[in-house]
Amino acid sequence: MEDSKKLLGKMKMKVVGDLALNEPNLMQIKVRHPNITGMAPLRIGSRVIPPAWFVDTLEIEYNGKLIVKALLTFSVSMDPALRFYFVPEKEGVMTVKGTDTKKNEFSSTHDINLKCSGSVNSYLSISVKLHLSMRHLHEKTTKKFYNRI
């Protein structure tokens, strides 16, 4: 869970298989987030139940057109993954925007083209608006993370 907190909002995206224009393509998105239900203690034997904190919306656009809008609940697992089909008419950009119950916002983009289809997942550059609940994220963590890729 600590990794999910440190990397909050980071995403991986990939087209599963080879990209085919004008045909359904399977897309997979993974978001780093602890997704705490607020219904159980985090440690066995503890009586302290933390407040709910989970990804509550994801909006996915392809070339500026909304293709998926997901309203999520506490039932989604830690570091949620979402798979869906989309039909690209041409190469373009997939944009994912999300929020959580603490009003943190995160987003990421991924180029969809014939050259990179079926490639290995890679962490994508994202913009994260830092709020009070995310001030624990330090520059050192971000630099170490990007130096590993």
Short description:
The protein is mainly β. It contains 2 helices and 8 strands.
SSE layout and pairing:
Blueprint: H1 2-6, E1 11-16, E2 25-31, E3 55-62, E4 65-71, E5 81-86, E6 92-100, E7 105-112, E8 126-129, H2 139-148
Antiparallel strand pairs: 1-2, 2-5, 3-4, 3-6, 6-7, 7-8
Write a structural description.
The chain has helices at residues 2-6, 139-148; strands at residues 11-16, 25-31, 55-62, 65-71, 81-86, 92-100, 105-112, 126-129. A hairpin with an 8-residue loop joins strand 1 and strand 2. The chain is elongated, with a radius of gyration of 17 Å. The strands form 2 sheets. A 5-stranded antiparallel beta sheet has the order 4-3-6-7-8, with no helix packed on it. It has a 3-stranded antiparallel beta sheet with strand order 1-2-5, with no helix packed on it. The model is unreliable at 118-145 (pLDDT under 50). By secondary structure, it is mainly beta. It has 2 helices and 8 strands. It has a single domain, classed as Sandwich (Immunoglobulin-like).
